[in-house]
Amino acid sequence: MAAAQSGLADLIAPGGVYVCGSLKEEFGLAVIEALAAGLVVVAPDGGGPATYIDEGVTGFLVDTRSPQAVGAGMAAAFELIAKPDDDERISLARDLVADQFTMQAMARVLSGVYSTVHAPVAGRCVKSVRFGGPRHQ
């Protein structure tokens, strides 16, 4: 992905685009990795990418069931790369990944969640619950 962003000698031109053609991505790890590499992404408008792609800034959300929509997203992505403020876009994408999707960022969030969980108080009963309806003997 880094070669797609910065190029590779005479083999790969700089300014690549990452296209995720899935119908839906629950999270989209490859999309996150593409953002971290500085690529403009084109991703499904359903699922996880819609929660972190900044439309028209770091990528484009499209109806991946439509070849025309995917093509339009790709064209828009290449237009975005050609803009003079591409370094700012790359910084925004990389900052997003560093702030929200690194192990350290996720640990920060989860430690806040875990700190609200308390151990049972000694001497208190916890009511048990049986699932599956009445038991037949």
List the helices and strands and how they pair.
Blueprint: H1 2-6, E1 17-19, H2 29-36, E2 40-44, H3 49-52, E3 59-62, H4 67-81, H5 86-100, H6 103-114
Parallel strand pairs: 1-2, 2-3
Helix pairs in contact: 2-5
What do these coordinates show?
- This protein is mostly helical and 137 residues long.
- It has a single domain (2-114), classed as Rossmann fold, CATH 3.40.50.
- 43% of the residues lie in helices and 9% in strands.
- The protein contains six helices and three strands, in the order H-E-H-E-H-E-H-H-H.
- A three-stranded parallel beta sheet has the order 1-2-3, with helices on both faces.
- Strand 1, helix 2 and strand 2 form a beta-alpha-beta unit.
- Helix 2 packs across helix 5.
- The longest helix has 15 residues, at 67-81.
- The relative contact order is 0.12.
- The model has no long low-confidence stretch (mean pLDDT 83).
